[in-house]
Amino acid sequence: MKLLGRWAVLGAVGGLGLGVLAGCGGEDGAAADRDRLDRLAATVDGLAAEIVPATADAARSDVHAWQGDYRVCSDPTSTDVSYVVAAQLDAFVGPRDQVEHRVVTAFDDAGWEVASSRGSVVTATKDGVTATLSLGAAAADLNLQTDCVQVGDDVGREYGDRRATDFLEK
């Protein structure tokens, strides 16, 4: 009888553990994933609202396009999601090395940590977000991106399929 009692207790504890694990996904997990992705986008959007105009001013340029978008990470079997803000700057004023110096100063002034500044690419980080500015022949691309975030399959597909937010239309 004692042996049966132990197995009954182990079975009950094991069943409880499986019930807890089963509860980790589902609607509660999806709601938590959505909340996490929404907060991530709000963080990046806030940083972009600060650094995109500062970068355009430093380059003495105008913002031609500016969008925020969720993207499913590169692995085709993954539904992990990152959030990206992309801005295109029209023709900048001055020699490229001077523009690069002004842009690095703008990042520094805004509290970003400039990780590298080589040739025509400036990379900086702040609050877990990486910004990369690529200076072209007469224009520039600025991208702010988060690391990939692991979310449930349904939420990953849902956010990956969302339409990009156009900040210039707001």
Structural class: alpha+beta
Task: Give the biggest beta sheet.
Answer: 7 strands, antiparallel
User: Which blocks of ≥5 consecutive residues have pLDDT under 50?
Assistant: 1-25
Rounded to the nearest angstrom, the distance between the terminal CA atoms is 72 Å
The fraction of residues assigned to DSSP E strands is: 25-35%
Classify the helix fraction into a percent range: 40-55%
Strand order, main sheet: write it out: 3-4-5-6-2-1-7
The total strand number stands at: 7
Summed over residues and divided by their number, the pLDDT gives a mean of: 82
Alpha-carbon Rg, integer: 23 Å
Q: Which H/E pattern describes the elements?
A: HHEEHEEEEHE
Shape: elongated
| Total helical segments | 4
3D architecture notes:
With 170 residues, the chain is of the alpha+beta class. The protein contains four helices and seven strands, in the order ααββαββββαβ. Strands 3-4-5-6-2-1-7 form a seven-stranded antiparallel sheet. α2 packs across α3. The longest helix is centred in the first third of the chain and has 34 residues. The N terminus is likely disordered.
Give keywords.
170 residues, alpha+beta, seven-stranded antiparallel beta sheet, 4 helices, 7 strands, disordered N terminus
Give the SSE map.
Elements: H1 2-22, H2 26-59, E1 63-72, E2 81-89, H3 96-109, E3 113-118, E4 121-126, E5 129-135, E6 140-145, H4 153-160, E7 165-166
Antiparallel strand pairs: 1-2, 1-7, 2-6, 3-4, 4-5, 5-6
Helix pairs in contact: 2-3
Short characterization:
It is built from 4 helices and 7 strands, in the order ααββαββββαβ.
